[in-house]
Amino acid sequence: MKTRLHFVLDVFITAGLLFALTSCLVKKNSPNRSSVINDGIEYTLETDHGSYALGEEINFIYRVTNQTGEEKEFADVPNCTYCMAQFYITKGSEDIWRSCRVMPPCGWKKIILKAGETQEFTVPWKMENDRGTFETADDEPVQPGRYQIFGELQLSENREGTSLSIPIEILKSRPGFVRPLPKTPPATITPIFNVATATLENEYKFFEFEDSRAACQATSECILMRVGRCENVQAIHHSQIELANVYTARAKKIYPNIQCAPGFPIEEYEPLCLNQKCQAVLRNYRLLLEVPEQPVVGEPFWIGISFRFPVAAKLVNARIILPDNVKIISGQASWSGPIEALEDHVMWVKAQTNIAGEIYLSGLAGIEQDNSSIPPVSWGKVFKVAPGRSLTPQPTNERILATPTLANP
Fold first, then answer.
1. In this model, does residue 182 exceed pLDDT 50?
2. What gap in Å lies between CA 287 and CA 278, rounded to an integer?
3. Model confidence over 65-86: pLDDT tens digits?
4. Number of other residues whose CB lies within 10 A of the CB of residue 149
């Protein structure tokens, strides 16, 4: 027979279990969010969950709310739905996907918020790796793992946007989610040749080619190749040529019916060893971003961009875009002026951060002419900030941009 004490304990235990269960359910359904207030404006990056199953579509939301008591006018943003707010996805140091790889010539519009007003920018992601190109023909589904989402407004004026970041976890499955059946039954699984083990694997899995690239120290180590189902031009480290050929052959078997968009001839590209990665860049139309040395917490480091257009322009606006936790010590993050056809204009800033981890750095340059049909050029990459300087001597890497001290005396 239960005493009054037993009854009271039962009530407390039951209440505690219900509270714990409710807390788990609330956490499961709560939004995954990061926000900050700058100058009376609240910026928020959000997804509805922190974890998703393979096959789910995710909506990224970047929200701007005027918390002041007066009307606020922002700088111009692109008048294109997918380019007003720029979303980036990374996995480790790899750039997985961007909502606006190339900005079309869609003009600009102002964002004006009344007191208390909110404006949202929403872009869906179908869990695809765009492989660093704006063409969709060679996109591939991502694998389970932890990914980092970045979001910010794409501003045209010479000012920094407010960049926010949140993590998401992609799982093989998630309770309550039923994966939709494919429209076409998958083809018979073809055994996959694994270069590393030299064995045949009868598994249907996606080969993460981007993660297999060897680090480079000089451009001479990089070779231009046509890679993948659509044979897009890429720069491959010379040690990865066999791997690239196997990957291309396999991609053509897995995606036999993909319609490939036309690309530039391979002669239009050149290989570069940029930030220790082989990169294929256009010769006449490009923006490069370089961090010559490993960023370390509390120590200044250089960030540079170089851009080139195929035509001369009377006015080009360019800027280096940094997250809030990276501060400029010297140099100018923005520039406006004329440029000649095929001229390389180089910009350097010396920056510093007191937080270790990953930072997303990017650059943007555009011709400011109403009749210009040439869209802006951009480049972005995740860099790791080390908590302290390594005691092991680091290899000397070839630099692509002009020396910072000469560019910014």
1. no
2. 15
3. 999 989 988 767 777 766 788 8
4. 23
DSSP 291-335: --S--BTTS-EEEEEEEE-SS-EEEEEEEEE--TTEEEEES-SEE
**Two tokens at 313?**
């322009």
Domain boundary among 141, 171, 201: 171
- Cα–Cα nearest to 399, from 288, 318, 266: 288
Helix (H, G, I), strand (E, B) or coil at 263: coil
Tokens 């407390």 locate to: 12
- Tokens found for residue 141: 């589904």
Same domain, 207 and 293: no
CA distances from 8 to 13, 16, 17, 302 (A): 9, 12, 14, 65
Is 167 found in the same domain as 217? Answer: no
In DSSP terms, 289 is beta-bridged to 305
Interatomic CA distance for residues 241 and 243, integer angstroms: 5
23 domain-assigned = no
Q: Tell me how far apart the alpha carbons of residues 231 and 282 are, in angstroms, rounded to a whole number.
A: 16
What span, in angstroms and rounded, lies between the C-alpha atoms of 300 and 349? 10
CATH number, domain of 42, equals 2.60.40.2360
Structural domain harbouring 337:
284-407
Structure tokens at 399: 């630099």
18 within domain boundaries: no
Does 151 or 134 have the greater pLDDT score?
Answer: 151
Counting the structural domains of the chain, the total is: 3
171 near 54, Cβ under 8 Å? yes
Residue 258 domain-assigned (yes or no):
yes
In DSSP terms, which residues pair with 37 in a beta bridge? 42
